[in-house]
Amino acid sequence: LQSRMTSFKLSVFTVIFAFLACKVTCQTDEAASFKNMTKETYACPEYGMNFPGHDIETYEGHIETWQKCGELCQVHPDCKFWTWSHPRSTYYPGTCLLKSSDYSAMKEERFVSGAKNCSTC
Predict the structure, then answer these.
(1) Per-residue CA distances from 29 to 16, 26, 33, 41, 55 (Å)
(2) pTM of the prediction?
(3) Partner of 77 at 20 to 30 A CA spacing, among 23, 25, 37, 99?
(4) For 53, what's the count of Cα atoms within 13 Å in the CB-facing half-sphere?
(5) How far is CA 78 from the centre of its chain?
(6) Which stretches of 28-80 are assigned E, i.e. beta strand?
(7) What contacts 80, CB < 8 A, 6 or more positions away?
(8) What's the pLDDT tens digit per position in 69-110?
């Protein structure tokens, strides 16, 4: 009887461990694919999206629309993505950040972001 209980406990432990390992792997894979998104997978624009880092130019506090931010990106030769801080944002409202990369993309309600080719609805 004790042998069966030990075997049962090991089986339960194995199942729980396998489940947790799968859960961690799935979350890691999902996060990695999100971080490495490319412009082909983005809506135009992406509301509630931030592309942190990789700044090449900053227009602080005077850009009135995400469309204008997108236009600034289109005319900048090194810009590939942009992030705009909307008027109700807690991060310098009206700020446009031109980006060289979308790596580390994250959901963040304070921002609207897009790819270089996104400047109109």
Answers:
(1) 20, 5, 6, 17, 26
(2) 0.67
(3) 37
(4) 7
(5) 20
(6) 46-50, 55-59
(7) 39, 73, 99, 100, 101, 102, 115, 116
(8) 999 999 999 999 999 999 999 999 999 999 999 999 999 999
